C-alpha cells in the first residue's frame, strides 16, 4: 500500500476488510513514514567510497528506487549527510560546518571504514572516525562498501527514522568545544580514553606555523 | 699490491661524466650507477648542476618528474642525514636520471630552489618543506602544502611519531595574502575574492580554489590541497612490503589495479625476480581495463560539469561491466588488491577469456554512443575548444605526463618509450593531439580507450590457457596452501613471509609505468627489515594540479570548471 514492503501502520475503520474512506494513525508515525521515504542526501564524497557512491546512484543500482533520490550538493537543501571516504584533520572543520548548515531534522551515514574509524589510516593527519566531528546514525563498514551494503545502511536509517530513534552525540561534542592543540595518539587513547595526551600538547613558545 | 678500480660506468653515466668534466662543475659531482645514473651533489652546486642538466646539449633533462626527501636517521653509513632525491627525464634522449642533493645541516636542511630551472619543482618543493622541513631558499611561496596549517613538526622525519595528530580549526586555515581583502577597488571597478571548495560539486573531490575575480575573469588564483592527505608514505614505512599493496590501491582508486602493478614491479626489480607470462598478461589486461575505467569516469564527470548528464550513465555502465570482471577475479570491485609481489593473489576464473571478450564487444558501443552525442556537439566544442590551453613548452616545463602531455603534442608514453612487461610485442599507437586544450585532452582519452581495447585483444590472443601466474621463489611468494599444511619447509616459508615480510636487499630503485594519468613512478628505499624504509610514489596528477592555477588565469570561471574536470585529479593520488 505505502512504499517499499513496509506499510504504514494504520488501522482502518471499516471492520470486515472492506475499503476504508479514512485511516487512523499516530502523527509521529505518519511523519516518520514520510521522512524516511523522502530522504535528500548530500554526498560528502572525498575518496574511493565516493566512486562507489557514484555506482549506487547510477543506473545499475539506482538508489532512487528507495526514496532517496534527490541528491543535493547544498547542505541547506539536504537532510541526510552521506560521508563517503576518508576525512582528514584539515577537512574536519569543513565537515562540521556543512553539518551545522543542514536544517533539522538531519541524519548522518558514515560510509566506509575510513569515515567510521579512520580505517587502516592510523596516521598523523587522518580523523579517526567522523564521530569525532559529527554525530553518526548509521555506520556502513567496508573498504569501500559494496552498493548493496550502502543500500542496507540506508534501509537501516529509514527504519530508525520511522521508529523515531536518535543517535547519541558523544565524541563529537569534544570537537565543538575542544581547546587542546594535539589529539591523543592512538596509543594514548587506548591507555587513557578521555584525557588529552600528556606531553603531546604544543611545545611552549611554538607559535602556530 | 693491486688497486681496486671503481666499476665501469654505464654509457648514459659515462656520457654525463664526460660532459661534466668539461664544465666548471668538474670534481664537484659524484656519479654512480644504481638502477639509473645517480648524481650526488651538495646544495651549493645544485643550481649550477640543474642548469647544466637541463641545458647541456648531450643531457637535456627537461622533464622534472619527482622530488622525494629521505631522512637517513636510521640508515647508517650515509654522508648526511637529509637527502633530496630528484628524478629527471630527458625527452630527447629518452632516459631517466637521479640527482641527490645532500644537505649537511641536520638542524635546518637548506638547499636552493630549482623553481627557476624547472617550474614543475614548485609544489614538489613545498611538499618536501611540509613533510621534511627542507628550507628551499628562493622559493616564492614556501608554505605547507599537504598538512594543515596548525601542524607542528615534519611528519616524514623518522623521529616523528606516525600517530601524532594536531588539532585544526577553521581559524587556522591560512589564506594567501592577496586574498585576505575580499573586495579591492581597481579603477572604477572592484575585484572580488571567490572561494570555491573545499567541498564543492565542481571540484571533484576535495580541492580548495581561491580566485581573485575581475568580473567574470580570473585575475589570480591559488589552489589549496591537502584535504585528502592520508599519509600513504608514513603508513608504508610502518608496514611490510606486501601490506603496502592495499594502500597503493587507494592512491588512484579509479584505476586501482595499475598502482598495484607499478608498486610490485618496483619491488620485484629490487628482488630480481621474474613472473610467468600468464601472470604478466593478466596484469596487462586488467591494467588496460582499469585505464578504460579511469578515462570513462574522467570524461563522464567532466561532461557532467558542463551539463551533459547522459554520457555519464553510458560511460559508467562500462565501469559496472568491468567491475564484474574484477569481482570475478579477486572479489573486490574498486580497490582490488589483486597483485602480490611475485605474481597475483589467486589465478583468474576459468571463464576469464570469454568474459574479457564479451567486454571487448560491449565497451566500444558505449564509446561510440558518447562520441556521437558530444564530439561534434556545438555546446561542448564551444566550451572545450581553446579553453584551458597548455602549450608544448608549458607542458614540459610544468612536468606534465600522460594524456595531459600527449594532448599538448608530446608523444611520451612510458609503454612506448620504455616498454615494460610485454607492451613492445603489441601493435598499438600512442594517441596525441596538438592543440593542448580541453578538447584535445578529451580526444586523447577517447582514443586511448580504443588503443587499450586493441592491446587487450592482442593480449588475449597470446594468453596461455593454463600455467602458473606466480613466481616459484618461495622466499617471496606464499607456497600453495596444501603444501603449507603437509610440508614443513613450505610452512616455514609461509610463516617467514607472513610474520616478517619479504627480505628485500638493501638498495634503492625507481620504477615507472604508465598510469592512467601519466608516469606513475615508485621510488623505494630498502634498508633490510620486512618493509620499505622509504616509499615515494610519483603521482602523475600532482604536477597537473600544480599548474592548474596558471592555466586558468585570464579565463572565465566557467572555463576553469571545464578545465579542472579535464585534468583528471584523483585526490588519493594527488595528496596520498
Q: What brief labels describe this structure?
A:
heterodimer; A: 209 residues; alpha/beta; Rossmann fold; 4-stranded parallel β-sheet; two-stranded antiparallel sheet; 6 strands; 30% helix; 11% strand; globular; disordered N terminus; disordered C terminus; B: 576 residues; alpha+beta; Beta Polymerase, domain 2; Cytochrome-c3 Hydrogenase, chain B; 2 domains; 5-stranded mixed β-sheet; 4-stranded antiparallel β-sheet; 20 helices; 40% helix; 16% strand
Written account of the structure:
The complex is a heterodimer of chains A (209) and B (576). By secondary structure, chain A is an alpha/beta fold. Chain A has a domain of 134 residues: 3-Layer(aba) Sandwich (Rossmann fold), CATH 3.40.50. Chain A is built from 7 helices and 6 strands. Chain A has a 4-stranded parallel beta sheet with strand order 3-4-5-6. Chain A has a two-stranded antiparallel ribbon with strand order 1-2. In chain A, strand 5, helix 4 and strand 6 form a beta-alpha-beta unit. Chain B has 576 residues and is α+β, with helices and mostly antiparallel strands. Chain B has 2 domains: 136 residues, Beta Polymerase, domain 2 (2-Layer Sandwich), CATH 3.30.460; 293 residues, Cytochrome-c3 Hydrogenase, chain B (Orthogonal Bundle), CATH 1.10.645. In chain B, helix 9 packs antiparallel against helix 14. Chain B starts with 10 loop residues before the first helix and ends with a helix. The relative contact order of chain B is 0.12. The model of chain B has no long low-confidence stretch (mean pLDDT 88). In chain B, the strands form 5 sheets. A 5-stranded mixed beta sheet of chain B has the order 1-2-5-4-3. In chain B, strands 8-9-10-11 form a 4-stranded antiparallel beta sheet. Chain B contains 20 helices and 16 strands. Chain B is globular. At the A-B interface, helix 2 and helix 3 of A face helix 8 of B.
Amino acid at each position: 500500500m505505502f512504499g517499499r514492503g513496509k506499510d504504514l501502520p494504520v488501522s482502518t475503520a471499516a471492520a470486515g476488510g472492506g475499503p476504508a474512506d479514512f485511516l487512523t494513525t499516530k502523527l509521529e508515525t505518519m511523519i516518520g513514514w514520510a521522512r524516511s521515504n523522502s530522504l535528500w542526501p548530500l554526498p560528502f564524497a572525498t575518496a574511493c567510497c565516493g566512486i562507489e557512491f557514484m555506482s549506487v546512484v547510477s543506473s545499475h543500482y539506482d538508489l532512487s528506487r528507495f526514496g532517496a533520490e534527490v541528491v543535493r550538493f547544498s547542505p541547506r537543501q539536504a537532510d541526510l549527510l552521506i560521508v563517503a571516504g576518508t576525512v582528514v584533520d584539515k577537512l574536519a572543520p569543513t565537515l562540521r560546518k556543512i553539518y551545522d548548515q543542514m536544517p533539522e531534522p538531519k541524519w548522518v551515514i558514515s560510509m566506509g571504514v575510513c569515515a567510521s574509524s579512520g580505517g587502516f589510516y592510523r596516521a598523523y593527519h587522518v580523523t579517526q572516525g567522523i564521530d569525532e566531528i559529527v554525530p553518526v546514525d548509521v555506520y556502513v563498514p567496508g573498504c569501500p562498501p559494496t552498493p548493496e551494503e550502502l543500500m542496507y545502511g540506508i534501509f537501516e536509517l529509514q527504519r530508525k527514522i520511522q521508529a523515531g530513534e536518535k543517535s547519541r552525540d558523544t565524541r563529537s561534542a569534544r570537537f565543538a568545544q575542544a581547546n587542546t592543540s594535539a589529539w591523543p595518539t592512538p596509543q594514548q587513547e587506548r591507555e587513557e580514553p578521555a584525557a588529552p595526551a600528556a606531553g603531546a600538547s604544543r611545545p611552549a613558545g611554538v607559535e602556530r606555523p | 699490491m693491486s688497486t681496486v678500480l671503481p666499476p665501469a660506468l654505464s654509457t648514459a653515466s659515462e656520457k654525463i661524466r664526460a660532459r661534466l668534466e668539461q664544465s666548471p662543475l668538474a670534481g664537484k659531482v659524484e656519479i654512480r650507477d644504481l638502477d639509473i645514473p645517480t648524481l650526488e651533489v651538495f646544495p651549493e652546486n645544485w643550481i649550477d648542476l640543474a642548469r647544466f642538466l637541463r641545458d647541456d646539449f648531450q643531457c637535456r633533462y627537461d622533464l622534472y618528474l619527482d622530488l622525494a626527501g629521505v631522512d637517513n636517521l636510521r640508515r647508517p653509513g650515509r654522508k648526511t642525514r637529509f637527502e633530496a632525491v630528484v628524478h629527471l627525464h630527458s625527452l630527447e634522449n629518452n632516459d631517466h636520471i637521479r640527482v641527490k642533493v645532500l644537505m649537511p645541516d641536520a638542524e635546518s636542511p637548506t638547499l636552493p630552489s630549482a623553481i627557476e630551472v624547472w617550474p614543475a619543482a614548485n609544489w614538489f618543493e613545498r611538499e618536501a618543506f611540509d613533510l621534511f622541513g627542507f628550507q628551499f631558499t628562493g622559493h616564492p611561496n614556501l608554505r605547507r602544502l599537504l598538512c594543515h596549517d596548525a601542524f607542528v613538526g615534519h611528519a616524514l622525519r623518522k623521529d616523528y611519531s606516525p600517530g601524532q595528530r594536531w588539532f585544526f580549526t577553521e581559524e587556522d586555515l591560512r589564506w594567501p595574502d592577496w586574498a585576505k581583502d575580499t573586495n579591492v577597488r581597481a579603477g572604477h571597478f572592484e575585484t572580488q575574492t571567490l572561494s570555491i571548495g573545499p567541498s564543492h560539486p565542481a571540484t571533484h573531490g576535495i580541492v580548495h580554489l581561491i580566485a581573485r575575480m575581475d568580473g567574470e575573469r580570473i585575475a589570480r588564483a591559488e589552489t589549496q590541497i591537502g584535504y585528502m592527505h592520508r599519509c600513504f608514505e608514513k603508513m608504508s614505512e610502518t608496514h611490510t612490503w606486501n601490506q603496502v599493496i592495499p594502500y597503493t590501491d587507494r592512491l588512484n582508486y579509479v584505476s586501482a589495479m595499475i598502482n598495484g602493478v607499478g608498486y610490485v614491479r618496483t619491488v620485484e626489480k629490487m628482488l630480481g625476480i621474474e613472473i610467468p607470462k600468464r601472470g604478466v598478461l593478466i596484469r596487462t589486461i586488467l591494467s588496460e581495463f582499469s585505464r578504460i575505467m579511469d578515462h570513462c569516469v574522467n570524461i563522464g564527470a567532466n561532461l557532467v560539469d558542463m551539463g551533459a548528464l547522459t554520457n555519464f550513465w553510458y560511460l559508467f555502465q562500462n565501469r559496472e561491466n568491468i567491475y564484474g570482471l574484477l569481482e570475478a577475479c579477486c572479489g573486490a570491485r574498486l580497490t582490488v588488491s589483486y597483485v602480490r609481489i611475485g605474481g597475483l593473489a589467486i589465478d583468474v576464473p576459468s571463464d576469464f577469456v570469454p568474459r574479457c571478450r564479451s567486454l571487448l564487444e560491449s565497451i566500444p558501443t558505449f564509446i561510440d554512443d558518447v562520441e556521437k552525442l558530444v564530439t561534434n556537439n556545438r555546446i561542448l566544442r564551444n566550451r572545450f575548444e581553446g579553453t584551458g590551453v597548455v602549450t608544448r613548452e608549458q607542458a614540459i616545463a610544468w612536468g606534465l605526463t600522460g594524456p595531459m602531455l600527449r594532448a599538448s603534442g608530446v608523444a611520451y608514453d612510458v609503454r612506448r618509450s620504455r616498454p615494460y612487461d610485454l607492451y613492445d610485442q603489441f601493435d598499438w599507437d600512442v594517441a596525441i593531439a596538438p592543440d593542448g586544450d580541453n578538447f584535445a585532452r578529451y580526444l586523447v582519452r577517447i582514443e586511448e580507450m580504443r588503443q587499450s581495447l586493441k592491446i587487450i585483444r592482442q593480449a588475449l590472443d597470446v594468453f596461455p590457457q593454463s600455467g602458473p601466474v606466480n613466481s616459484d621463489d618461495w622466499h617471496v611468494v606464499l607456497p600453495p596452501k596444501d603444501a603449507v599444511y603437509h610440508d614443513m619447509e613450505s610452512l616455514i616459508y609461509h610463516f617467514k613471509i607472513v610474520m616478517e615480510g619479504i627480505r628485500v636487499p638493501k638498495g634503492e630503485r625507481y620504477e615507472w609505468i604508465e598510469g592512467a594519468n601519466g608516469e606513475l613512478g615508485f621510488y623505494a628505499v630498502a634498508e633490510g627489515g620486512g618493509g620499505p624504509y622509504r616509499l615515494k610514489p610519483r603521482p602523475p596528477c600532482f604536477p597537473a594540479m600544480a599548474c592548474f592555477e596558471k592555466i586558468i588565469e585570464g579565463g572565465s570561471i566557467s572555463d576553469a570548471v571545464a578545465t579542472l574536470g579535464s585534468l583528471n585529479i584523483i585526490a588519493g593520488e594527488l595528496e596520498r
